[in-house]
Amino acid sequence: MSAARKILIVAGLEMAIIGMLYGLVYAVFVEHQTLDALGATLTAGFLHAANGDLNAARASIGEYSHVAYNYVRHVDAHSHWIGLAMLLLVLGLAFDRVSFAEQSKLWLAVLLVAGSAVFPLGVLMQTWIAGPLPQVAAAAGATAVTAGLAGVALGFARAH
Fold first, then answer.
1. What is the pLDDT of residues 20-35, one digit of tens each?
2. Is 98 left (phi over 0), alpha (psi -120 to 50) or beta?
């Protein structure tokens, strides 16, 4: 088994475990409170609006938006880690069919693994850090995965 194939399979297994553990911890310790907060802020917003207090309604809807934004990022990070892990595993199984030199395949594998780790982490960082850094990290990770997949597609196409 080539080094590139081993990297993809081992990293895929590790990221699947990380994604599942993160999802489990989030579901057990955070998700229920977050869903309660979503319902409470939305209800408060509608109650304030019904009572004619539009400033309080806007504040409640703004809080709902903030909680929903964070909730979606946590769920996205969990699902992307697992989804990208599955992609790495599938590619690892077929990676010996990529028609490039071993060094090039190794670089493609590293690019795919790095992007697959950085993209969900950048998404998750958006809940911790304000500003453009988390979005830049997520975009860089997504770009690395896309470039790696383009390289793999080219390598598969060259094999035929």
1. 999 999 999 999 999 9
2. beta
